[in-house]
TrEMBL record:
Domain of life: Eukaryota
InterPro entries: HATC_C_dom (IPR008906), RNaseH-like_sf (IPR012337), Znf_BED (IPR003656), ZnF_BED_domain_contain (IPR052035), Znf_C2H2_sf (IPR036236)
Cellular localization per UniProt: Nucleus
Region (Disordered): 79-99
Lineage: Eukaryota, Metazoa, Ecdysozoa, Arthropoda, Hexapoda
Molecular function GO terms recorded: DNA binding; protein dimerization activity; zinc ion binding
Organism: Aphis glycines (Soybean aphid)
Keywords carried by this UniProt record: DNA-binding, Metal-binding, Nucleus, Transcription, Transcription regulation, Zinc, Zinc-finger
GO CC annotation: nucleus
GO biological process annotation, one example: post-embryonic development
UniProt protein name: BED-type domain-containing protein
Regions that span the bilayer: none
Domain BED-type span(s) in chain numbering: 6-51
Amino acid sequence: MRPGSKQRSTVWEHFKKNVDKTTVSCQICKKDLKFYGNTTNLKEHLKRKHPTALIIPASTADDPDSELHSIESINNLSNFQSSSTNSNSQTESSTLNQTLTKRSRQLTLYGTTKNNELTVAENNEIDKCLVKMITADYQPLSIVENVGFLEFTKKIQPLYTPPSRKLLTTKLLPDQYNVIYLKLKYMLENVNDVSITTDMWTSDSTRSYITVTCHFIFNDCLYSPVLATEEVKESHTGENIASALSNIFNEWNISNKIVTIVSDNGANIKHAINDHLLKYHHPCVAHTLNLSVNESINQNTEFLRVLKICRAIVGHFKHSNLATEKLKEFQKQMGLPELKVKQDVCTRWNSSLNMIERLIQIKNPLSAAMSSLRRAPNCLTSNEWDIITDCAPILKPFESLTIELSGEKYPTLSLVIPLVRGLQYTVRKVRPETDADPKLKKTAFGLEDNANNSQQWLVDELTSIISINNGANDNNIENINETPASLTSTGSSYSLWDHFDQKVTEVRSVICPNVSATLMMRQYLELPHLPREKNSLDFWKQHKMILPELYKLQQKYLCIPATSVPSERVFSKAGLLTNDRRNRLSPKNLNYIIFLNSNLNLL
């Protein structure tokens, strides 16, 4: 449009002036309307009678009649449909709604300001989405400087200018970090008990880091947010590790709330937790289980020999296109799915399990393919096939239990005790719970003595909680009773009920807490078992009013994870951040990104 020319309203795309010039004719419904020299009543007619006319080409988005493009007008479609005398089909209505919704989003994306500029709120919203994309996918911060990314953002939103890397690291990342930090701080201030998982890791740039993940129950939901990822510059002695952990605990003010700290079996970290922090150390069950399985495999020379043959077969098919094509050919001939071999990592027994499971799965086409190849490693003998066929179902329960114990959405510590019993039946998938969990209660222990010991331990702790509560209640009762006693006495300071009240208080303080705890435990054990697939936290949410003290105990102990896998997962993903494209990341920015990535659910 040339400068100085007056822009014609888009309203006139739908109206035509009549000869008398005092009325106009709607080109949609052919109705004549009064014309008063402006388009106000014409716009109202379109909004009320023809809202679909508001779906205009993007090229007219600069129209000064911005009301015509308003989302509010688009949303009036529902009113139009209810009052319309034309009976449209449900399919047409649904299609129209989808079109309007799409256009509504489009208008929001491009902004509705008259000056072709994004509002501050719109710009901030896109900035937040950019930060979320970078942290959720572990994109390098330099992406905001990449030509392809800049062209992409220009195409989808010409009015948006991506932030510089400096602005990203000095403002946008810290701002998003602080939003989640404050929310998490509030949650931790309102819980009494937390547990910690921690692990150490060395990046590609040889920097050492320690991460801390906190686990707690808040509003009957289990949370496992990452608190911090800090660089450990000094040697990994118990004292230095304890110092790094202590700094993180103090920052979040949770040191006195920690029930236990879960980590691997490393001597230094155990020394830091037990001797310096004076906290209870719970060894990672998955790590212990992994060590046990590896030791068992390494002691079985025959199985190791067969694994070596399996690796040679897999390696050949991984590096030979001819062998791979032969395998596909025989799979097609046999009407089987086209599956490839799986390479294992010798230090990870579960990857060896995956390898032999796949070989068993493709046994027939694999044998046929190898027999047709001129150059191929020796195939497994009948006896060797029997060995891996027998070993796979033995190792499978270990893998299943490791996966179960590594969950973050449900309590896992309660799986540990029945794990010992479950592994006795290696071919059965058992997922029982401990006495602190309502799924299997005493039946999960296997040994009656273990169940009774656990029950008595819970009764003792319940007694302690009830005693504290009764002490507070007794103080309230004494304060209440002081006034009636003074009123009923006839000028004497002595009350006939003093001796009685004293004896009742003594008996209640000694007997009642234990009796109440025993009754509560009995009541809990008599409740129906919770189905194994249900989340234990749902049970306690429903029964917290019936079993209040036991509810407090479950918050204390069911937040403890059986493994330190949550922290290990952080470093597995964090490795993406420290490769060649991202090795410029400072420890501070690394902490920001890992924190945001792990806690996006709190936004």
